[in-house]
Amino acid sequence: MDVVLSGRAAKPKAQSLVGTLSFEFSMDDSLLDVVLPHFLSSLAPSWDARHENGLTTNDIRLTFFSNISFKGSLNMTLREFVQIHLDFPFAKAMPPVLKQSARSIGPFPAFLYFELHVQQDLFENRTNEDMNITSGKGHAGGKRKKNGHDENERPIKRIHGGGGIAMLSTFNPPADYVSPVAQPLRTKVTLYRTAYTVSDDGEVSLDESTREALQSPSFIHDSSLGQGVMKTVYQLDSPGHTYVVKRFHRMSPKEDKAVSVADNNRLLLDELKLLGCIKWLLASFYEYGKQQGVDLDTSLIVTEAWYAIEDVANTKPCHASGVSDDDYDVDVRDSGVAWLLEPRRSGGVMKYCGTVLGSKFKPVQGRLAATIYAFIHFAWLYSKKSILLCDVQTMIIRQDGKELNVIFDPMAHTPKGCSGPGDHGDKGIKDFIEHHKCTTKCESLGLDALEDDLEDLDLE
Ligand SMILES: Nc1ncnc2c1ncn2[C@@H]1O[C@H](COP(=O)(O)OP(=O)(O)O)[C@@H](O)[C@H]1O
Ligand SMILES: [Mg+2]
Ligand SMILES: [Zn+2]
């Protein structure tokens, strides 16, 4: 295992922190419960000597050699992990000096090499600790104005002046972490967020009583963190928290027409509505599963999400909003610019199905996947055949030492075809009915077969 610092430069560069740590594990040890905690605690003395705050599993990302992501979750034994990565060249994917250790025992490699990436921005936002200072290097830049951007200083409590504890440190941050050029450009924003509520019968609405300003100063990064087919995602830094904000960059997967401020607003509200419905359906699913005594994977949750409005009454919309000077008219000034706000997660996306399954659809294997497919089937029936979830994806987060699989970016097919982009209406419903194969979870839950629903569909 190598411990690597991933900087918050626009193109993160990695810097090895403590050299390679190694340890012998049993193939039946769990990555999440045994391997990761072991390395975090071996790392703690040298980390804690240089930093005010300890590392948690949420600050780090585990990868193969040279930052290659692996499949799925850490919630498995080393044996299971190797089994789902049989196509991975374990023996080759390690630094040259270690390659001689790469023997195998039967089908299994005797030596696994991982990197533990410390996500500098997540750590700093969680702890308010500036790693450039606690590692002994002050800011080279400080306040600056560049390209007209008003970049205020990060709200850091300066406890050590720089020096001091740094005498113990062998850590030497590469120049691009302390140079102002490597800092991402961010724009200060005033953002109000509103949570949604879901009534007992599953109706979703914004709860105006929760409306609050995000703590100041908050910044939206100028360059995006990522982009899907529909939305562009930007990081938002707020004191003590790291979020993402999302906006739509197209109206439908096929159309490339520009999205107006009003269209974006509408699409985001539809997405929030769907998130709320799914949250309600998921709670009902787990409740029903419990009543029926069915063994379900209970690690699924729906992402936290808020409807957020960037206040642009007195300042232009931020760079990331994509709102041009021409579009910054009286209406936009009054209404503000809408965003979908979510906590920022690190790590990869796991996809269980696309918008359409099609005849070549190969379901993902395993207990979690079987639970998800049964949930889609259940949700269709329980929503009185009004919502057929599709494009189901998750990201993993760790909370209190447990792994949770967070559903985000949902889509659905609905009989009216109007739940949002990707809704193929009755055609999408027919596709699912034809290609969904009931899992043992669907059967144990006693879910009605779907075939009879085909007759009700309106297909020309
Ligand atoms: N909360 C988040 N934290 C970190 N990355 C995210 C988050 N949400 C989305 N992403 C990344 O951004 C990509 C696009 O976001 P997504 O909501 O899936 O948009 P789209 O509707 O275009 O697919 C995702 O595939 C994922 O890689
Ligand atoms: Mg997506
Ligand atoms: Zn089924």
UniProtKB/TrEMBL annotation:
The keyword Plastid is assigned to this record: no
The molecular function terms of the Gene Ontology recorded here are: ATP binding; protein serine/threonine kinase activity
Domain annotation Alpha-type protein kinase: ranges = 188-450
CDD domains, from UniProt? Alpha_kinase (cd04515)
- Keywords in UniProt for this one? ATP-binding, Kinase, Nucleotide-binding, Serine/threonine-protein kinase, Transferase
* Signal peptide span: none
Q: Where is this region: Disordered?
A: 130-159
What protein name is recorded for this chain? Kinase-like domain-containing protein
Protein species of origin: Mycena pura
